[in-house]
Amino acid sequence: MLRNPIHLRLEKLESWQHVTFMACLCERLYPNYWAFCQQTQFADAQLYRRILDLIWESLTVKDAKINFDSQLEKLEEAIPLADDFEVYGVYPAIDACVALSELLHSRLSGETLVHAIEVSETSITTVAMLEMTHAGREMTDEELGALPAIEEEWDEQWEIFRLLAACEERDLDLIKGLRSDLREAAISNIGIKIEQ
């Protein structure tokens, strides 16, 4: 899959930075799940929203008591199966769920780096799959890497990374700022916007 130097750089970050990075990417994936739920009435997108909010809370509230196991169970019941739907939106919706489950697993295991790389790859995969679907064919990593949509996704990820990497210690203002900026933008990695 599309590799990027960001994956090597993530190794230099601490676990709270990995978790914040993943939460940011899940914020950018959430509108894809939301749109799919709106279109199909498959599930209540608020479930995803609530789980992601709990993760943000765990980053900003000292000693927040959150049962990540039960959140993972709830999420697993709300992941659509591709074969059950004929709409394309099921694929970005699944990717959004995969990313959030990686994030939950990182909270359960305490291992954050591998999951941060997975979430990064999941987000870029959503963009790559849509580009290949539009083009009607498979593309090489070289071809994909040259596409503006892919460049834009990497730029977004690098931007979040750079803001986090600049912190010496856990910066609550930065975490809250990233969260509110992404929530207010309410636009996904493939340009889906949440209509309030």
TrEMBL record:
| Pfam (any one) | DUF416
Superkingdom in the source lineage: Bacteria
Gene3D superfamilies for the chain? YP_001051499.1 domain like (1.20.1590.10)
How is this protein named in the record?
DUF416 domain-containing protein
Organism lineage reads as: Bacteria, Pseudomonadati, Pseudomonadota, Gammaproteobacteria, Enterobacterales
